[in-house]
Fold:
Amino acid sequence: MPSFTLPRAARIARITRTHKVGIAVLAAAGATTGLAVTAAPGSAATTAAHAPAAVKPVSADGMPAVAGAAERPVKASVVDHIKVTAVAKQDRVAEQAASRSTDRPAAPKKYTDNLDGWIRQSLDIMKSKGIPGSYEGLHRNIMRESSGNPEAVNDWDVNAQNGIPSKGLLQVIQPTFDTYHVAGTAHDLTDPVANITAAANYAAHRYGSIDNVNSAY
Structure:
């Protein structure tokens, strides 16, 4: 059979058409594959699996940080500061009150104006001066000497005959009172407290204590 060769232009045109058909087929195949890949199950999961993991914050000890944990210590610190400040203020107020109490002079002790009060006042003065004696010792001797009368005067004994009668609760003569008078008491022989303390002072020097006196002294 005689050979027949297409003209060059026809060959080019034919090749071009063939190529176009092939390219179209390849394009269609590529589109189908792309659709298949897009719709393939697990593709989203695969993408997510390869996506970088979110970084979670951790605390200083390596444990996962809890939301709001950073604010809690700050809030607790503020509350503690308020408590400490309140306690310090209370301490200052207490110190100031104690200071005022210390600076304020103590109110003078009050005594009743009777034999009991005179003895108790005398005992406090005797204690401050180091003069011994007890309530019982004073009361016992007072009742024997004057029956509790601060104005009692002995006008019959030897002292009275010598012009210096015994006077007061514990029947003290003036020279004895002047010698043993206790500072801080009235300089009056018949003053109840002055008379008792001077007599107790005299008895302490002569008998060791007014408690040791059981008769005229």
Q: What stands out?
A: Helices lie at 8-39, 43-50, 71-103, 115-129, 135-146, 158-161, 174-180, 192-207.
